[in-house]
Amino acid sequence: MAKQNKRAAPAPVAAAPAAEAPIAQADLPEIDVAMRAAILRRKMVNKQKTLILSSRVHTLEEMRLTGNALKGTRPLLSFDKSFDEKPELSLIRELLIQVIGTPRGHPRSRPFFDRVMTFSHVDGRIWIRNYQVIRTDNQRAQSAATFRTEEIGPRAVFTPIRIFDGSFQGRTLYKNPDFVSPNLYRRRLRMSQSVRYHQRKIDEASRVGRSTRRVMPEDPVDSTWLQEAEE
Asked: Residue 163, SS3?
């Protein structure tokens, strides 16, 4: 009688979850629909990748503004109406909310707001400002209270470059047509400086040519007295 194998059978391996099907072009004929789908899928593991150029940053030490805020307070994020009108800005808004916004009830945050961060889209760039919210009580009316803002800093300016459908791959959902890379900008600047250099050399050569043409011819009368003195 054959000896039975008492070794336990291997546990069945769970099937791997099916990969997310690529977005078909026929299903999303417009790029706006892809933007909305990306916004709805922002909580998934395969998040969208956004390339942003930080073109200008001013620190607190550099600006020395009078505003101040408590440490650990939650910022109140304020976006202008352009973030509702353009789909690419709506996706960037969700990205900024997840990166900068503080979740409610976070153990290291305070349960109130005393500062506001504004995001404005002007000239194709995103301008970020940080303000302190100051409450000024009205002594004449006991129930009335007004609020004013005082800038804290820092300041930053972001330029959107491109938005991809996946984290490190996928088709392009948005591409900034007016974006000029810093390398291309420096190259154009060097070319303009080289053009000015060549033009300056041409002007110097023409100036030398004009100075040689202005030389007075030798007058034979001037050498007459010299010849008589030598004799």
From this structure: strand
Q: Look up residue 214 and give its two tokens.
A: 């202005």
Gap between the Cα atoms of 93 and 79, Å rounded: 8
Parallel, antiparallel or unpaired: strands 113-122 and 74-79? parallel
Q: Residue 175: in which H helix or E strand, if any?
A: strand 172-175
Q: Are 50 and 94 in contact (CB under 8 A)?
A: no
Residue 150's H or E segment, with its range, is: strand 145-151
The SS3 call for residue 85 is: helix
Q: Residue 119 — pLDDT band, cuts 50, 70, 90?
A: very high
- The chain-wide mean pLDDT, for the chain, equals 73
What is the C-alpha separation between 87 and 77, in angstroms, rounded?
19
CA distance 172 to 165: 6
Tell me the C-alpha to C-alpha distance, in Å, between residue 101 and each of 49, 77, 93, 129: 18, 7, 11, 14
Q: How many CB atoms lie within 10 A of CB 93?
A: 20
